[in-house]
Amino acid sequence: xxxxxxxxxxxxxxxxxxxxxxxxxxxxxxxxxxxxxxxxxxxxxxxxxxxxxxxxxxxxxxxxxxxxxxxxxxxxxxxxxxxxxxxxxxxxxxxxxxxxxxxxxxxxxxxxxxxxxxxxxxxxxxxxxxxxxxxxxxxxxxxxxxxxxxxxxxxxxxxxxxxxxxxxxxxxxxxxxxxxxxxxxxxxxxxxxxxxxxxxxxxxxxxxxxxxxxxxxxxxxxxxxxxxxxxxxxxxxxxxxxxxxxxxxxxxxxxxxxxxxxxxxxxxxxxxxxxxxxxxxxxxxxxxxxxxxxxxxxxxxxxxxxxxxxxxxxxxxxxxxxxxxxxxxxxxxxxxxxxxxxx
DNA sequence: TCTGTCACG
DNA sequence: ACGTACGTGACAGAC
Length: 343
Hints:
Elements: H1 2-8, H2 25-30, H3 37-55, H4 57-60, E1 72-74, E2 84-86, H5 98-104, E3 113-120, H6 123-132, H7 135-142, H8 147-156, H9 165-180, H10 184-191, H11 195-208, H12 210-226, E4 228-230, E5 236-238, H13 247-283, E6 289-293, E7 297-303, H14 307-319, E8 330-335, H15 338-341
Antiparallel strand pairs: 1-2, 3-7, 3-8, 4-5, 6-7
The structure holds a DNA duplex.
């Protein structure tokens, strides 16, 4: 495809080397105006992905025994301590496009039951606020503010009401970056801006949230000393990369250490909630059951008659899994199918 | 078995 | 100068 687009048609190649030109989503988007074939390829990519990964294989995996689709949970694969799922991977069912959502709609509750989706709101940034103690972050959450808008207002020194969409999006990408272990290069790639500009955003952010800067620095220093990063509950992730002689590998180690505190603690918290919910459902003799976990979301199949009780049970056990400051927050939706439950 | 791509958090 | 945002799994195609 690269040969056709870039050599034969002479479209603007741009990014990447290594084994040749890239033809990924971002590249295609950037050359959409240059030739009418590009949009057709983009469309074909979306259709073939959905067809080959979901529509084709999933029906074949429905159990003959009970007519349901069962995944396999791996508890010891993902380094931060998250679960992962295989055959099929039910943690990557589409949601981001209209067409993808139609596939999600095919996941339905049994007759007499509804699907209840409960997801933690900004759990990793709340963990950051808690472990860093950064007052501005804690207060923004305590006041129930939109965290990306609050971040943009603070960093740019503007009234939240006057912020543009782009300004909020920059703050959102910076917040993602903080969770991933930020780098100027990564932020610049993501926002498609010069690295110097990205570096300036990072410096402005850290100046406005000094306790976050302290948290990052102390996390790295501790990890260098101990050889492992530690979640809020004391679970450890070894980070040998931090001792590497290669500077790039050491930088990776720094990002892994910082990311683990948030991603790993979030994984711990939702597991605590799952255990608590399961125990209470059993103790109360409910027919409702947990059917899926997707990192910050729990999906339950709930009899109609149990809905209001189970909804409050789930909210209480997820929010109460651990007393964070700011507190954990949970959004809950109910529907006949999984897509509906998330609206 | 590896690479590129793309689905999710 | 280099080359990176964190974590997964599935698929097609090349080898």
